[in-house]
Automatic annotation (TrEMBL):
Coiled-coil region list: none
Species, as recorded: Raoultella terrigena (Klebsiella terrigena)
A family per Pfam: Acetyltransf_10
GO MF, one example: acyltransferase activity, transferring groups other than amino-acyl groups
Domain N-acetyltransferase: 3-159
Record key words, sorted: Acyltransferase, Transferase
Protein name: Acetyltransferase (GNAT) family
Amino acid sequence: MKMRVRLAAPDEAPTLWEIRNQAIRHGCRESYEAEVLRAWTPEMMPEGYRHAVRDNPFYVVEEEGGRTAATGYLDLRAGSVEAIFTRPECFGKGYAGLIVTAIIAEARRRGLTRITLEATPNAAGFYLRHGFVALGEKWLPSKLANADLRCVDMALELN
């Protein structure tokens, strides 16, 4: 199957939000309670999400036929990896790895020497396999989820 990694356009934000919600609802079931997942994945997309797509290098994997299968971006202000999400039916195809590789390359092009992220517990192993180092667990307050979310602080040195 042919696919390509490309930058997303702001008008794709609703589709990217849908992928986010599907990935969280499916992938985070073992890490967070159902009530938290429901609150964290509202159908209505916050307008700030469209701004994130517009203002940052926001990558997608597009499958043959044009369907977007995975997402993720480099938050330029924070120097962090954000929104790495894959449609549940596309898990295991390597799409998230393609996104991470594109983000790391983008960070290097921009002269960053370190990137960080806050991984959900179910995703920490994925990031370890891509060279990130776990710095420790923490509880991240989420206004959207109306809860503190357990996550793993991680970093990658880009020497």
